[in-house]
Amino acid sequence: MTTNDEKTKLIAGLDDNALDHDYDGIIELDNALPPWWLYMFYGTIIFAIFYTINFFGMGAYKQQDELKEQYAIAQKSIEKYQKEHGSSVDENSVVLVAEAEKLADGKIIYEKNCVACHAANGGGGVGPNFTDDYWIHGNSINDVFKTIKYGVPEKGMIPWESQLNPNQIQNVASFILTEFKNKNVEGGKEPQGDKIE
Ligand code: HEC
């Protein structure tokens, strides 16, 4: 009598490399692994050893560093955005800027958008005179910023909010308050508003 095990091996003709166990007629063959697969497998083991040492032991890579790097990149792009859009400046936080390049920027904006009504020398025309001591809407940097931003549409002063970004409004407001202050240009428009020393 042959055992079940032996029968299965015989049927399969595999008695050479069949392993010595049998589960309900299912047998396991001890075939040689394909070399390409085997060496790749050894390779992954060797790689894992070096990788683990390098990663955890020598600290060649740290998530904390990568986070810092990414953070710095994000911070740069926020600064760039704010520089371009000036999103952080409003009528409460606006300051009178004194840097030459910002005033020069304000001058360019003024010449492009404002001279038609306020004159190149600030003496006024359709709009009020900036070179006298009289102001309709106040002459603090906050007041002037607000007037430029929201305008006085019913009186013909355009709201510039949609055309100039907050930084540009800050620059042109600072330019007006710096460049035209107490100049009292000849031929300027008659005073309007209240006298503010
Ligand atoms: C279409 C004509 C026109 C243009 C263009 C114009 N303004 Fe005016 N602006 C006016 C008028 C009119 C007033 C007066 C509003 C009032 O009577 O309340 C005024 C008022 C102002 C005031 C307030 C003056 C005060 O006495 O309180 C400021 C500041 C001002 N303009 C800045 C600007 C700036 C900056 C620009 C360009 C970005 C500009 N304006 C462009 C017509 C203009």
- Please count the beta strands (DSSP E, at least 2 residues each): 4
Corresponding CATH superfamily of the domain at 100-195: Cytochrome c-like domain
Note the beta-strand portion: 5-15%
Q: Which strand order does the major sheet show?
A: 1-2
Write down the overall geometry: rod-shaped
CATH topology of the domain at 100-195: Cytochrome Bc1 Complex, Chain D, domain 2
Low-confidence stretches: none
Number of H/I helices:
7
* Ligand set: heme C
- Write the H/E string, N to C: HEEHHHHEHHE
State the CATH architecture of the domain at 100-195.
Orthogonal Bundle
Question: Largest sheet, if any?
Answer: 2 strands, antiparallel
Summed over residues and divided by their number, the pLDDT gives a mean of 89
Rg from Cα: 40 Å
Helix content: 40-55%
N- to C-terminal distance: 124 Å
| Overall SS class | mainly alpha
Give the CATH level 1 class of the domain at 100-195: Mainly Alpha
